[in-house]
Amino acid sequence: xxxxxxxxxxKRGPSGFGSSSTAEDVAQGIxxxxxxxxxxxxxxxxxxxxxxxxxxxGAHVVVPARxxxxxxxxxxxILKEFPDATVSVGELDLSSLASVRKFxxxxxxxxxxxxxxxxxxxxxxxxxxxxxxxxxxxFATNHMGHFLLVELLLDDVIKTSSETGIEGRIVIVSSEAxxxxxxxxxxxxxxxxxxxxxxxxYGRSKxxxxxxxxxxARRLQCSQERNVNVTANALHxxxxxxxxxxxxxxxxxxxVFFLGKPFLKTxxxxxxxxxxxxxxxxxxxxxxxxxxDCNEAECSATANDMKMAAELWEFSEKFxxxxx
Length: 324
Fold this sequence. Notes:
This protein has 11 helices and 8 strands. The protein is of the alpha/beta class. β5, α7 and β6 (230-236) form a beta-alpha-beta unit.
């Protein structure tokens, strides 16, 4: 009940921010010069706002998209507002592991440092579709593509944090929809068309996002003897009218968002928790958490099950290894 009240009143939590805080509020007074951030899903919505705010504060933002012209459009929009900003573009389809590997190869060729990876991209296809590697599309895009992206670039983040003394951060955008997922994932049934439901598929992928963050955080903490200075956290951005459901029933999605408009966050408010997790000093040393409204929040008991998180990690490693 306190959370419900705080959400609608915008009451600030222990962090000093709340549901009405914006990404600009969170970033106020923070300099990101010399820092590099990869932000997936940054062509619109909270991803674009995240990229815009980080670029405004001096970060070199890398904005990959499925179509390179969309990335270039983001760069043009940011440079029009902030002519001195540094924005790089890339082509990345997270549903394709081959595309992830190609993007990483091209990024490494730039020989840039890497301070943070923000896994913001997400889809809710609303129908049963398989990825190029024949994995259910929501799970492939929202989790597996991001899992491989982090796996291939984690050493770069660790190296950068070691050389600069600046804490590296992995930020994974999940959702309260993780609570709609089955309480146990049966990996042999990920591609079971007969049992597919759009809420279950999307919720399952968002549950995987939290498990990914928690298991990654655990593994990084186990590496502290190597002075690894990198954190990993997941978050719920809030209910926002974005193009998340672009592949689903457009009329239904538009109707739901219209009726729920009084309860929705604006895009700048929706991007606040992502920016908070990525750059705010209060998050220094905080890892393996689930955030909402720029404060630590409770995820489901299933999402806190570290045995299941480890099982997901093992499945994900085997899957990406089987598709070189």
